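#struct-pred
JK: can someone run the complex with iron/sulfur cluster? inputs below
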Amino acid sequence: MSKTWYPVIDYLNCCECGTCVTKCPHGVYDVEKAPSPVVKNPEACIAHCHGCGNLCPVGAITYVGEDTGWMPPNGSQADEEPCCSCGCEDVTNKTVVIDYLYLDLQSCDRCIVTDGVLDDVMMILTPALKLAGYEVVYNKTEIETEELARKYQFLSSPTIRVNGNDICQSVAENSCGCCSEISESDVECRVFEYNGETYEVPPKEMLAEAILRNVFGLSEHSCTCSDYELPENLETFFKGKKNTECSCGGNCC
Ligand code: SF4
Ligand code: SF4
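RT: done, structure tokens with the ligand placed:
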């Protein structure tokens, strides 16, 4: 089945500032061709994400599958000013994409409880953001395989991203009994550091603050798309999980 959502570049207007390539944390663009925007992995694009399109200073990005009424916010400025200094930090981004990425929502307490806490926070923040004119997209993705981990450049479970930026500046983990049991190996999962304390489930205040800081541009962007490597810890998890799966493909039980 062909992919139904990915960016399309209007090369007549594009001024090759490279903002879109830098912005996308999902490896959709070919970073080796930067600053030219070459869509190398359209399958990796997140449905209904307008992250790169909202930052393009000349409105040169549209999307295959666009059905939300979204329009490039900056129009074509190609005739008005020579690009590019490129001002993307000043562009008003009116889309908020929250991604919740996890290993397991069936038996992993840490993923399950974090999922509930994030739901609660989103339930409160979404109406306020919409009132302020933002489009809010909330995605949940189970990282079932190594391939998906690479596709989403997944570093640790669970991960929460706001417009592609991990709410944690670094990866801190401790032993996770549930994921160790699933994979019959020693596996570590994420802990969240907030105000000098460490939590296995992030407090609501931490999530709300992280989301709002990202939305209003108070957080540093942490794009890691060019240097991703699957962490050994996750490799262990996926190998162990595969070994524990029944060879019938789940039809016998
Ligand atoms: S920033 Fe969002 S819309 Fe743009 S290519 Fe990446 S995932 Fe797709
Ligand atoms: S952000 Fe827009 S102008 Fe800049 S490289 Fe991407 S498509 Fe071209």
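RT: quick notes.
The domain at 95-244 is CATH 3.40.30.10 (Glutaredoxin).
Helices lie at 19-23, 51-55, 109-131, 146-151, 177-183, 204-215, 232-244.
JK: thanks, will look after standup
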